[in-house]
Design goal:
Helix content: 25-40%
Distance between the termini: 61 Å
Mean pLDDT: 93
Bound molecules: pyridoxal-5'-phosphate
Number of strands: 16
Largest sheet: 8 strands, mixed
Low-confidence stretches: none
Shape: globular
Number of helices: 14
Structural class: alpha/beta
Radius of gyration: 28 Å
Strand order of the largest sheet: 4-11-10-9-8-5-6-7
């Protein structure tokens, strides 16, 4: 018998684990006697106490039986020795097979452990202490009120009413509370929509560049993706396939990540294409509240007379992403299916958070919070854009009328120099992400996606000075 200690956990756990592997692997057969605790302790160079505790653990797991204190024997576990490494079950579903083939995620969400001092990576929320304090109070009050039974799987009715009211006031979406399904953010909306609409190998159109988490979700559900180019007006509808398509996933209010706002003409064209291709449209309206000007652009859903648009909103940008709440405005034709899919998925989103959010949205606080956030975002955007304008001999600035990020393109830097540039930026404390991993068709020159919500305006000024020095150094 060979005992190898794997250095994971306490000593007695290591000894017990090693003996267990020998028992399950058939090297220690039923009835055979384990060495005395003293002998094994000496052989392993450990204290006798550790060996005694290991034997006790194995005994509690019924893998050995101790008789009279001194003699510990391997229990008869009826053929368990067949549980060898060779018979490990290796087969997984086609879903998991596709999951394993996904490329790594570029989004900062996948690298929470390595936060640089000045983090300009996309996805950082706008931090607001006043909001968090108010949220804490709302949660405490909601915890006392919310029932502890299972919630309504479609969502807390007062919250659905508050969202319907908000959408008609601010997004031109006229809907009834009963059309709204509360979900765990856009990500769960994607899962539910894919489950309800998609069969494997069916065609789905995705914008290029694209939101990786949407792409990954659709790919794992077996979609055949057609990436369609975007230009300065949004997705190029003229290049969308004419064959029957199941779904098109778009970000019309603020194309992710290029920042383009889809023009009205393109929106109408897109809706006409959907009618021809018999396609549903997933409208991801993730950050439309942060546009310059008086009102955010009207949603695609507000132009849709044929009920093909599945409008999805998220609280991740307007409040914060750890909340994990969002909503689907369900078209009539999918409403019951989406509701049932949500019920089977998780039996409903957490009740206390929903009740707290309902109170927040019903009061003026949500609108006030949006007003304050917009003001702050506009200040930070101005800081970033003014600093970048000074670098225009070296870079080109992408559209920046909305959202919490923008894209810059290098005029001279080559792809072969990009890694060195990013490493240098990192060494001075700057977290930056390249833009090309968001493309299926690699762009002709390198660029960066710059998120400016998670860094205070004062810090942004320093960060932009550092960026300028890095750009000028190349
Ligand atoms: C394009 C896009 N859609 C949606 C979301 C929000 O996703 P969720 O609601 O799952 O947090 C984000 C957030 O970063 C995003 O970038």
């Amino acid at each position: 018998m060979q005992l190898i200690l794997d250095k994971q956990g306490t000593l007695y756990e290591q000894i017990a684990r090693s003996l267990k592997l020998n028992i399950l692997g058939g090297r220690l057969v039923a009835g055979s006697r384990l060495p005395s605790t003293r002998t094994l302790a000496i052989a392993l160079g450990v204290s006798r106490k550790s060996v005694i505790e290991a034997y006790e653990l194995l005994s509690a797991e019924q893998l050995v039986s101790a008789r009279g204190g001194s003699c510990t024997r391997v229990a008869d576990i009826g053929g368990a020795a067949a549980v060898s490494k060779r018979s490990r079950v290796l087969s997984v579903s086609r879903y998991a097979t596709r999951l394993r083939k996904l490329p790594p995620l570029q989004l900062a969400i996948a690298r929470l452990d390595t936060r640089p001092k000045y983090n300009l990576q996309y996805g950082e929320p706008l931090l607001n202490r006043a909001l968090l304090n108010s949220w804490r109070r709302k949660l405490a009050a909601a915890a006392l009120r919310a029932a502890s039974t299972y919630p309504d799987a479609a969502g807390f009715v007062p919250l659905r009413r508050a969202i319907a009211d908000y959408l008609s006031r601010r997004r031109g979406v006229i809907c009834h509370a009963s059309d709204i399904l509360i979900v765990g953010g856009t990500q769960q909306a994607l899962t539910l929509v894919a489950r309800v609409l998609l069969n494997e190998q069916e065609h789905v159109v995705v914008e290029d560049p694209h939101y990786q988490l949407a792409m990954h979700s659709l790919l794992t559900h077996g979609a055949r993706i057609t990436s369609v180019r975007t230009d300065s007006e949004g997705i190029v509808v003229a290049e969308m396939p004419s064959r029957a398509t199941r779904l098109a996933y778009v970000t019309p209010s603020h194309q992710f990540p290029s920042g383009v706002i889809m023009t009205l003409e393109r929106r109408i064209e897109l809706l006409k294409w959907a009618a021809r291709a018999d396609s549903w449209i997933f409208e991801d309206d993730y950050d439309s509240e942060f546009h310059s000007g008086d009102r955010p652009v009207a949603s695609l859903r507000s132009l849709d007379l044929s009920e093909r648009v599945i409008y999805v909103g998220s609280l991740s940008k307007t409040l914060f992403p750890s909340l994990r709440l969002g909503y689907i405005v369900c078209p009539k034709g999918l409403r019951d299916d989406l509701f049932k899919a949500k019920q089977l998925d998780d039996l409903g989103s957490p009740a206390i958070e929903q009740a707290a959010l309902a109170t927040f949205m019903q009061s003026r606080q949500f609108d006030n919070h949006l007003r304050i956030s917009l003001k702050e975002i506009l200040i930070r955007r101005r800081t970033v854009v003014e600093s970048l304008e000074r670098l225009e001999p070296h870079i080109e600035i992408g559209p920046h009328q909305g959202g919490m990020h923008l894209v810059i393109w290098f005029r001279q830097l080559r792809f072969s120099q990009l890694d060195r540039f990013l490493k240098h930026a990192r060494s001075v404390g700057l977290g930056l992400d390249p833009i090309h991993p968001y493309y299926r068709v690699k762009p002709s020159r390198p660029g960066l996606i710059i998120g400016y919500a998670g860094v205070s305006n004062a810090q942004l000024k320093t960060a932009m000075d550092l960026l300028a020095r890095c750009v000028e150094a190349i």
